[in-house]
Amino acid sequence: xxxxxxxxxxxxxxxxxxxxxxxxxxxxxxxxxxxxxxxxxxxxxxxxxxxxxxxxxxxxxxxxxxxxxxxxxxxxxxxxxxxxxxxxxxxxxxxxxxxxxxxxxxxxxxxxxxxxxxxxxxxxxxxxxxxxxxxxxxxxxxxxxxxxxxxxxxxxxxxxxxxxxxxxxxxxxxxxxxxx
Length: 180
Ligand code: K2U
Ligand code: ZN
Prior knowledge:
The protein is an alpha+beta fold. The protein contains 3 helices and 7 strands; from the N terminus they run αβββββββαα. Ligand K2U binds next to strand 1, strand 4 and helix 2.
């Protein structure tokens, strides 16, 4: 298994719309395994394929404390959503260090396919409901900061770009065997 590179906002690839999964094969199973290793190492409770620059409708989630209940959702669709909404302080592995309130449906019912292509349905509330909606946004090319005000979003974009420049400078200096 491999740790995959997670795209960082505002990378434009995060806004690509994912295409349906059509091949339920060994490649897909390895991708799920690599995404799982990447998610647990981050650490996170969810990860969308879009975040690792694979633009197929695939997401993985494990909200358990024991980290032993991974579920892969291929071609997920929300088939019911509650009128009741809830605000949750969200984060994102593509926007490290940023947390803010986002309002979403409190409960959702999702239909998806597993890695073998078999259909299943999940009724979710709480953190699972938030995570499913957050990850499905990624498959539509949407990052949670887009729910925030333009002022907050621009400040986050500036902060992330500044950090990215610092990371690239560090990498260049390491490559040259020097620091500062
Ligand atoms: O998409 C991602 O980057 C994965 C998120 C999933 C998530 C976002 C918002 C709310 C719940 C889950 C990461 O897991 S962010 C880290 C995290 C961990 C525990 C709870 C909330 C966020
Ligand atoms: Zn995210």
